[in-house]
């Protein structure tokens, strides 16, 4: 008889613990936001490949030109890009910038920052800079300064060998 009461008490404690634990569990990213962030990452990697193969290119890379570097990935049309060779930096390579063209992409920001592992090169546009939690602002190239709407996700990379 006592064993039944012990089992019931332990079951009640386990159930209460599970309920309280679920209330304090961190919220997970929605599948669509994480998928969009992954697509942005793949698009950025394709742009890095393009910039490495074309080190003197400056400007926006058309999607048809970028397709060989994307492989089977279908880039979301929400992404825009800009490539600029490094100048006055002391090393070869290019700066690659991927940014969103629509406010619908703002949901991707937490997932993008998670994929970037807190990098200062991933954040939101704020005037002439990119800002991200815990990092100093990173300046955008002059061609894009104030050209990206504030609050839009921006992910930059250095393309060099």
From TrEMBL:
Species of origin: Trinickia dinghuensis
Name the UniProt record assigns to this protein: Pilus assembly protein PilM
Source domain of life: Bacteria
Lineage: Bacteria, Pseudomonadati, Pseudomonadota, Betaproteobacteria, Burkholderiales
Cited Pfam families: PilM
InterPro entries associated with the record: IM_PilM, PilM_N-ter
